[in-house]
Amino acid sequence: MRLRVFTKSEWEEPPRIRHQFARLMKKYGNEVIFYQKPRYFFRSSMVLNDESIQLERSAQLIHHQLRLGVVLSFLNSLYEKYSIKKTVGNYFSNDLIVNFNYDYYFLRDIFPDNIIITVINDDFVAQARFFDGYYAERLLEKTCLMSDDVLCVSKPLCEQARKWSSAKLFLPWTEKKYEPPKATTRRSVLFWAHINRRVEFSFIEFCAHRLPDVDFHLIGPVDDSVKSELNHLVGTFTNISYISSMSLDEINFDNYFSAIIPYKAGKKEIEAVTASNKTFQLLGKGMPLVVSGMPNFINSQAIVKVQNKEEFVSALLFCQREFDGLQPTIRELVSENGFNERYMQLLDIVESLKSDSGKSLV
User: Fold this and answer.
1) Which of 97, 106, 126, 356 has the fewest beta carbons under 10 Å from its own?
2) What is the number of alpha carbons within 13 Å of residue 92 lying toward its C-beta?
């Protein structure tokens, strides 16, 4: 099967579900053409990366946040359609089109006979900068309506998209199987993420103060906007350390009894999250999770959702105390959300669409 995956991401940027999806499909022997973030005015030629995934890049006329109104959106769509058509080359109507862009309603004009699946992985309406997301919602509506099916990475996003489609939940997954933790003394907490304005630093500070015997390791790229806050924490507390970006496989999990996702409350794009892209990867390492700011996060005994500083401290103590007892729950959760389970879910969806539409895929 050949897939064309449309995104607004660079292949080399920190991996998100669109990268994970492309790798998953390639893992099972499919041909994958990954469309990176469009350039302005000029497209670039196809290249083959070291994972044998073809990288394409089309051109756009106007930034997606600035396509305010029918005219600007229409002009951009004409330009992007022309550019994408130039990349199609040896076109087959049985290519599977997987679209991660909320504003690509014009794909049906390019691929009239193909199965098109749109994946909604962010709250694009909440993230829109102008007019309270009115125009973003209109583009999302048109994109859902032209799609054969819509998959969403969270329950709130499914509810949003079901105004225009029969949206299905399609959670992230782990690319590796559950690894039973070693029997060691565990006194550390891990925060492995992009460290930016979403982070509730006051929760980390409070926990570090209340739990002086627990070490907090913060690992990941840091936005310039929060460097001063991060430096303050590291400089004030001897039990808070910052470590530059590392892959999951480079991290030694032997000392950790929990992974945390301390996000601020009241941010719509965060509240829409049911499971982050790293959720099942961390669970796969045996880590119970403590999360804040995400009331719609997946429910599990191994995932503690908190609302304030005191609850965060209590949740960490719970994870440390019950670490071994939580492992059967974590193992089951990971087994239900592995790469094979997600691949089979997608195949079932595609087979159903083929049966309903009479379209074929090779």
Assistant:
1) 356
2) 12
